[in-house]
Amino acid sequence: MQYRNGVAAAAAEEETGVILGVDGGTTTTVCVCLPAASAAGGSPEKVPVLARAVAGCSNHNSVGEIAARETLEQVMAEALSKAGADHSAVRAVCLAVSGVNHPTDKQRILNWLRDIFPSHVKFYVENDAVAALASGTMGKLHGCVLIAGTGTIAYGFTEDGREARAAGAGPVLGDWGSGYGIAAQALTAVIRAHDGRGPPTNLSESILDKLKLSSPDELIGWTYADPSWARIAALVPIVVSSAEEGDEVANKILSNSVEELADSVIAVVRRLSLCGKEGKDSFPLVMVGGVLESNKGWDIAGKVTNCISKVFPGAHPIRPEN
Amino acid sequence: MQYRNGVAAAAAEEETGVILGVDGGTTTTVCVCLPAASAAGGSPEKVPVLARAVAGCSNHNSVGEIAARETLEQVMAEALSKAGADHSAVRAVCLAVSGVNHPTDKQRILNWLRDIFPSHVKFYVENDAVAALASGTMGKLHGCVLIAGTGTIAYGFTEDGREARAAGAGPVLGDWGSGYGIAAQALTAVIRAHDGRGPPTNLSESILDKLKLSSPDELIGWTYADPSWARIAALVPIVVSSAEEGDEVANKILSNSVEELADSVIAVVRRLSLCGKEGKDSFPLVMVGGVLESNKGWDIAGKVTNCISKVFPGAHPIRPEN
């Protein structure tokens, strides 16, 4: 099963015009504009990118549907404009967006795309995990991908087209291994240390310093002043630094998150039997997202891989370049 | 230290007109209109209530500042109207509202009250926990109060005027013992059972039935469609029923919540030494809110009291009538 094949088939019919590819995350959304001809064949490394545009969050669960659509519309318009093209040149749109969890999410986005593009344009709407997996496997949809950025999701595909996912349900529904989850646990630890329910932690001083607040009580107002998940998740580097400096509370938060992230991959691999009947078959494990990339001292990605390898020794970690 | 004394002193100066008393929660806000003369003395049981009005959430952290103000303004206007009075008859306004966590919260509400009432009106703005404690101690601010409704907070006062609080920081900041916290854990358990990260639970069927959804995947859209905390917390009775029927996951969620609620009281009592030097002095422990009231089989309040009494045998539980 090839992720690129669908797009390529559409492009092959019409060798002029452009294709828009969007990777929509909870913090950052990237749109690339490619010549339609390039997608019809050839190696994915050699696809010429005509233009690239970057915008903020396009996850409707985080910022609401209107803001998410505005971001997607704006980032596509900007990429087209940079490429010197307009909507009439578009042959296909490939949207891989976080927050696409249910057929109704996909249908809503498809209906909206049909409103803004000419009727002959082909649309492909998927969860961003699908694009993330393809980015690490040269387009082949086989194996498991773990995204841990502002949000987190594990998504897996078998060669015969079955798929499964775990986590990716957002902060209310327990994505504790995500950047948001890690940072929310750190903020909670500061509140608990302050009111006497939890042990003291260096996170208190470092987080208050970073946010220029004078007391943990002010964290409550800060937290609810803006519901954006990305704003909370931006505190992850402070948690990692505190853990590296030996803070026990920060270390415990990161260790719990490693376990959560590994559990989501293990659940997917088990449901799809990606590891074969004996549990030892090799499968690609693509790992992407800020939580897995940004740290060198406290190596979250390395520890997640270790946890998974203990259960499935055939897991073959792949870290695609950005 | 008497909560009623401040209001009474204001009223004593002017024996005509009315006083508004508002208890503002995250699910329900109640306003009573009393004759100013009545507050100047006499027993609190005998205060004649001229009118009573009920509205929704007035916690600005849950629904935002504009909606919270509208609720407060509307509930006060309705109580006045039912009492056949208008703004010019008001002598004092006593607002006890959840979400008042910091002096800036209080100041913001005071500024707004000054805009809508005549300049001679006296204002008293507190966290709703202050009114809840007073409701159980005949107005005396001494002891500890635990509120566990949609949100949760523990608030304590010493006879010499010191005060301390624990929890009350909302769902992002770990109020796991609250109605919202219990229900969010239950929703998370359904997602985890569905994607293979957690054990199966009867909560899946009972919650999907209640919400008329056909698959746990639809819970994600349902959860983020409306950010109101009260809507999530309304699922608590289902968690309690499942626990009563023996569901292990539901039992674990409630047991964790009992521990969280007890921990918040223990932290406050310890910081204020409400239990005396030997740890055995008696103190009032007022317990209010839907989570502590609604269940008979799985007795959350009883179990919280047991946890606290093991540490502080002098805790004297009081359950005020509604």
Automatic annotation (TrEMBL), chains A, B:
InterPro entries: ATPase_BadF, ATPase_NBD, Euk-type_GlcNAc_Kinase
A family per Pfam: BcrAD_BadFG
Family annotation (Gene3D superfamilies): 3.30.420.40
EC number, UniProt record: 2.7.1.59
Single GO term (MF): N-acetylglucosamine kinase activity
Highest taxon, organism lineage: Eukaryota
Top-level EC class as recorded in UniProt: transferase
First and last residue of the signal peptide: none
Domain ATPase BadF/BadG/BcrA/BcrD type: 20-296
Family note: Belongs to the eukaryotic-type N-acetylglucosamine kinase family.
Name the record gives this protein: N-acetyl-D-glucosamine kinase
Gene name in the database record: LOC109718265
